[in-house]
């Protein structure tokens, strides 16, 4: 299937989603918000891959939300005095938020590779991923403040999971750039690479390593980490105990141990497809 904003390829259990509008600085147009969750859910629900890698093209990872979306197409009515404006705006923002929540909710890990600038909505995107990697010349900026907005698509609830509150406030209030070295030092980036080519090779190597692990156990890890982040320790302990009680498969554990002992790839079951109920 072809898309307006993305190129998608799947090989060796890795799905590679590439932002493909470098001439528009990979700005997030109307089509972007529809296509991204469709792609992610198709990969996940049809068990097409064990890892997703998101990368971009050109000198800028993403310029954020396409400014053309700030007009009446976003709200359904451009007149703020119109009774339908607020309801339309709320509905649209919730839909945009859901586009990135799809990355967090899918069963498989999502790795993102960032080159150049990552503005506004781009920060919303990368903070919804499991792991972040950047080139040495990359940076993030919570750019919304520069255009008189408060970031509302996902940056604040997620970036606080990665950076200290005071630092987040500084970035939000000033819109300054956080460059790759600072992002790595503060824990937002997992790793920094000198070039885009080195970054993609490194990220694909990590993705390939994940594909060799038992898929159900990887899913369990993603689910338990996200749940633990958002709940108390007591709740998280109960949750993982019930998960393993329900989902732990002795044959998969035995295969993992034997594969390690015999220094060979494991022969693991893939995740089942998700029935749509239609």
Topology:
Blueprint (H helix, E strand, L loop, with lengths): L5 E6 L2 E6 L10 H16 L5 E5 L16 H4 L8 H22 L4 E5 L2 E3 L1 H7 L3 E5 L3 E3 L13 H5 L5 H10 L3 E2 H7 L4 E3 L2 H16 L3 H16 L2 H15 L2 H12 L17
Helix pairs in contact: 1-3, 9-10
Which features characterize this protein?
278 residues, alpha/beta, 2-enoyl-CoA Hydratase, Chain A, domain 1, 9 strands
Characterise the protein shown here.
This protein is an alpha/beta fold and 278 residues long. The chain folds into two domains: 6-211, Alpha-Beta Complex (2-enoyl-CoA Hydratase, Chain A, domain 1); 215-261, Lyase 2-enoyl-coa Hydratase, Chain  A, domain 2, CATH 1.10.12.10. Helices cover 47% and strands 14% of the residues. It is built from eleven helices and nine strands. It has helices spanning 30-45, 72-75, 84-105, 121-127, 155-159, 165-174, 180-186, 196-211, 215-230, 233-247, 250-261; strands spanning 6-11, 14-19, 51-55, 110-114, 117-119, 131-135, 139-141, 178-179, 191-193. α1 (30-45) packs parallel to α3 (84-105) and α9 packs antiparallel against α10 (233-247). It is globular and about 65 Å long.
């Amino acid at each position: 299937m072809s898309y307006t904003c993305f190129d998608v390829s799947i090989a060796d259990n890795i799905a590679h989603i590439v932002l493909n509008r470098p001439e528009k600085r990979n700005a997030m147009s109307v089509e972007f918000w529809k296509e991204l969750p469709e792609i992610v859910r198709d990969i996940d629900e049809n068990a097409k891959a064990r890892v997703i890698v998101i990368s971009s093209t050109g000198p800028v990872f993403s310029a954020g939300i396409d400014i053309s979306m700030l007009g009446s197409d976003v709200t359904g009515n451009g007149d703020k005095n119109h009774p339908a404006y607020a309801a339309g705006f709320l509905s649209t923002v919730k839909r945009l938020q859901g586009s990135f929540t799809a990355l967090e909710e899918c069963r498989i890990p999502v790795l993102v590779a960032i080159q150049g600038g990552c503005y506004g909505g781009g920060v919303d995107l990368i903070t919804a991923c499991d792991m972040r990697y950047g080139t040495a010349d990359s940076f993030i900026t919570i750019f919304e403040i520069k255009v008189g907005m408060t970031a509302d698509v996902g940056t604040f609830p997620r970036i606080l999971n990665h950076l200290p509150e005071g630092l987040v406030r500084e970035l939000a209030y000033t819109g300054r750039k956080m460059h790759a070295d600072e992002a790595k030092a503060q824990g937002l980036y997992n790793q920094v690479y000198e070039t885009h080519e080195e970054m993609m090779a490194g990220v694909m190597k990590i993705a390939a390593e994940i594909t060799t692990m038992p898929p159900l156990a990887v899913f369990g890890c993603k689910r338990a980490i996200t749940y633990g982040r958002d709940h108390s320790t007591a709740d998280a302990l109960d949750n993982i105990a019930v998960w393993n009680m329900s989902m732990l498969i002795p044959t998969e554990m035995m295969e993992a141990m034997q594969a390690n002992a015999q220094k060979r790839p494991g022969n693991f079951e893939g995740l089942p497809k998700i029935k749509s109920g239609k």
